[in-house]
Write a structure and sequence with these properties.
The protein has 16 helices and 24 strands. The protein has 547 residues and is an alpha+beta fold. The chain has an eight-stranded mixed beta sheet, with helices on one face. Strands 16-17-18-19-20-21-22 form a seven-stranded mixed beta sheet, covered by helices on one side. Helix 1 packs across helix 4 and helix 11 runs parallel beside helix 14. The longest helix has 21 residues.
Length: 547
């Protein structure tokens, strides 16, 4: 087998880990990583060791989905304790960094009273000297910014904390991953390699290009003990070849959640990549890796949340992506790490930053960044963009999870881009409270009332209809909002017909249908062909296909 040309099985999971926890963006940038290790990971581990039975009960409670509870059924306490001890030993410098950040915040609040901050540089914790700049906002509130590029060059960015877990999945369902570390399992091969390792690209290529197991084993450093299990991840069966779209229209394919592939015969654009697996029975028909082009001209990120920057999808696609478009970030704020810098350190070489109303042009296609408001708990976060994509005369508006708090903003945007043919919108209009995502970063504790009022919430029906009124689309599609089964592990969302996001999106669909606007809440997969000249008023030119 080692000398034979083989393919990687389509249901092999390439799972990225940091300190044995599921990797997401706040575990990469050194500042956010330090705060999450010390506050999120350590708090969860300490709580589990103290009362594993409480965690086991909470995991079984649907109301507790996505909470800070380990899913080990009350067992494996000794292993969790060993992981906690190892973390304290290996990441001691991150504990020091988190402590220094808290001390800096406290010092600024105590001493930054409106006079010059220059004398306070002497009081900056030693390990942060040369890594931060002190500043005021226009309300005379003291703060600081990181020189984030220098943080990445320091000991606080340690690729040795990164690893890959390889395993085979046989279904779409996985438990919520952000609250439970990945311990050793007999069905998992652990690779102690950083995320920028070229072996990840070579392994992912084997989904379509055969290679010998001997070659990939040597590249990844597979041990003799790992070899028998590693061999089971490969097959002689040739995968179904991808059929490149060669027609004259615009093809839209929905892959689930907020992931949409826009293709013409000349270009491919993939929004918020999140790709499910195949090679097993699934209750929901869906596109997967086999339905992606061999080259993705532009992969686009809307915002820096864990369900829109999914390394499990992005790392295996890295070798296919010619250009990765991300929102421009330059503030150096703890809560808003720079995406381009992060992706560069993860091995993505052609990362393009886009700003609001900045446009990329190629052939007959343009991609324009648009303002993205809300869904970030009123924090001053800049790493978020909606996108206007125009192919010839046909235009699509990707609004992601934007919450339309001030319609006048988008009336002004309309003055620039005009009407659009199709809108895509997320309507998870309840959202988790601020502390669910940003809690470890907060300088001081906030009240429950404040926490519950500042949520990771998208648009409801009224806010969504304001977009319809402004941009006059002929079609509007609501994302599935994490309801596809292969999203449970990262979104933890389960709705009923009575859940507010379902009620609100149904209401929007009904109102649009009454106006003779095509409207639908997406789920699973969908394919549509559009004419390049766009819609004529009251005439539907879309040709729909359902797999």
């Amino acid at each position: 087998m080692n000398k034979q040309l083989m393919y990687l099985k389509p249901n092999v999971v390439i799972e990225p880990l940091v300190d044995s926890w599921y990797a997401w963006p706040h575990l990469i940038s050194p500042g956010t990583a330090a705060m999450n290790i010390t506050k999120r990971h350590m708090d969860i581990m300490e709580s589990y060791i103290f009362n594993p039975e409480a965690h086991a009960a909470a995991v079984q409670n649907p109301k507790m989905l996505g909470g800070p509870f380990m899913d080990f059924g009350g067992g494996r306490v000794d292993e969790v304790k060993a992981l906690m001890d190892q973390t304290c030993k290996d990441r001691a410098h991150m504990f020091e960094l988190a402590k220094a950040i808290r001390e800096l915040n406290n010092m600024l609040q105590a001493s930054g009273k409106g006079s010059s901050l220059e004398p306070l540089y002497e009081q900056v914790p030693d390990i942060l000297k040369g890594l931060v700049e002190l500043n005021y906002d226009l309300q005379n509130n003291p703060s600081f910014r990181f020189f984030e590029s220098l943080l990445y060059k320091s000991e606080y960015y340690n690729p040795e904390s990164q690893s890959i877990a390889l395993w085979i999945t046989d279904n779409d369902h996985r438990p919520f991953c952000l609250s439970t570390p990945r311990l050793e399992e007999p069905h998992i091969v652990r690779l102690n390699i950083p995320f920028n390792h070229k072996g990840i690209d070579e392994l992912a290529k084997m989904r379509r290009q055969p290679q010998t197991v001997e070659y990939i084993s040597a590249l990844l450093g597979i041990t003799p003990e790992q070899q028998p299990l590693f061999n089971t991840f490969f097959t002689e069966e040739t995968p179904v070849p991808y059929k490149k779209y060669t027609g004259d229209k615009i093809r839209m394919r929905y892959f689930g959640h907020a992931c949409i592939l826009v293709e013409t015969k000349d270009v491919s654009i993939l929004m918020d990549p999140l790709i499910s697996y195949y090679g097993y029975h699934s209750d929901v028909e869906h596109f997967s890796d086999v339905d992606l082009p061999d080259t993705i001209d532009y992969a686009i990120i809307t915002h820096n949340h864990q369900d829109h920057v999914l390394f499990e999808t992005l790392l295996p696609l890295r070798h296919k992506i010619k250009n990765l478009i991300v929102p421009r970030t330059r503030g150096g704020r703890l809560e808003d790490p720079e995406l381009k810098l992060m992706f560069n350190y993860l091995g993505f070489e052609n990362v393009v930053e886009l700003d609001e109303l900045e446009t990329i042009r190629f052939a007959d296609t343009t991609i324009t960044g648009l303002p993205f408001t809300g869904e970030h708990c009123d924090l001053n976060i800049q790493s978020k963009l909606c996108y206007h994509v125009q192919v010839d005369k046909f235009s699509l508006l990707f609004m992601a999870d934007s919450r339309i708090m001030e319609p006048m903003l988008y009336k002004r945007v309309h003055d620039v881009i005009g009407n659009v043919d199709v809108i895509f919108l997320g309507m998870e209009c309840d959202g988790a409270p601020l502390t669910w995502l940003y809690g470890p970063l907060m300088a001081k504790k906030i009240s429950r009332e404040q926490d519950n009022s500042r949520r990771l919430a998208g648009s409801d029906c009224k806010k969504g209809m304001s977009l319809v009124d402004i941009f006059d689309p002929q079609e509007i599609y609501v994302y599935a909002m994490g309801q596809e089964p292969w999203l449970e592990f990262i979104s933890s969302l389960k709705y009923t017909d009575e859940s507010n996001p379902i009620v609100q999106s149904n209401r929007l669909i009904d109102e649009c249908t009454a106006r003779e606007i095509v409207a639908e809440r997406l789920f699973g997969e969908k394919e549509i062909l559009y004419q390049r000249e766009g819609f004529t008023k009251k005439t539907a030119l879309a040709q729909e296909q359902f797999a």
